[in-house]
Amino acid sequence: MIKEETQELVDQGKMLPLMEAFYTIQGEGYHKGTAAYFIRIGGCDVGCHWCDVKESWNADLHPPTAVDTMVEEAVKYSKTIVITGGEPLTWDMGPLTSSLKEKGCAIHIETSGAYELTGHWDWICLSPKKIKLPTEEIYAVANELKVIVFNAHDLKFAEEQAAKVNNDCILYLQPEWSKREKMIPLIVDYVMKNPKWKVSLQTHKYLNIP
């Protein structure tokens, strides 16, 4: 049971349920191949059945950690910071991103967009889910749209989402890992017929790194 004063700090975004943090290579999307420090925040109720970090869903399993502590550790490794989850926008991202900005960091977020956009971001990767659609505001500011393709119907969903983002947003189709052998040929064929899209792969899994 979280103490009342700790809960208040969590509600204010001054403490966050930290699942894990690590320095690695970004494996997906526009910044793939780039060294970055990842901060994975616990808590998500979007509930994708194919999620590969389901242990992140229950925020109560991950200790509330002071934002300043997270920032102090992050900048030892990199000035490129990726905030992921879980669903990080479950929480107020303002204090975390403000502290990182004070340290001169470039801050990226990976989000479903299902909650109000808080924080100050240099790059927004929007990965929408059918179960809980993004808020309207995030479509206008997303830098990349990354749609996970689990089955052929997801291509239709991808087009519906692409119609909502801004004109500068880069469009990616990424096969769900467990279905990659079946989905990659489908995606390749689709991108060749619809070249506004690009292929994203989870290259970190091929490299066998976190």
Automatic annotation (TrEMBL):
[4Fe-4S] cluster binds at residues 44, 48, 51. Its cofactor is S-adenosyl-L-methionine; [4Fe-4S] cluster; Mg(2+). Its EC number is 4.3.99.3. It catalyses: 6-carboxy-5,6,7,8-tetrahydropterin + H(+) = 7-carboxy-7-carbaguanine + NH4(+). PROSITE patterns: RADICAL_SAM. Homodimer. This is 7-carboxy-7-deazaguanine synthase. InterPro entries: 7-CO-7-deazaguanine_synth-like, Aldolase_TIM, rSAM, rSAM_sf. Substrate binds at residues 25-27, 40, 84, 210. GO terms for molecular function: 4 iron, 4 sulfur cluster binding; carbon-nitrogen lyase activity; magnesium ion binding; S-adenosyl-L-methionine binding. GO terms for biological process: tRNA queuosine(34) biosynthetic process. Binds 1 S-adenosyl-L-methionine per subunit. S-adenosyl-L-methionine binds at residues 50-52, 86, 127-129. Keywords: 4Fe-4S, Iron, Iron-sulfur, Lyase, Magnesium, Metal-binding, Queuosine biosynthesis, S-adenosyl-L-methionine. The keyword S-adenosyl-L-methionine applies. Belongs to the radical SAM superfamily. 7-carboxy-7-deazaguanine synthase family. It is an enzyme of class 4 (lyase). Residues 31-210 form the Radical SAM core domain. It comes from Antarcticibacterium flavum. Pathway: Purine metabolism; 7-cyano-7-deazaguanine biosynthesis. Catalyzes the complex heterocyclic radical-mediated conversion of 6-carboxy-5,6,7,8-tetrahydropterin (CPH4) to 7-carboxy-7-deazaguanine (CDG), a step common to the biosynthetic pathways of all 7-deazapurine-containing compounds.
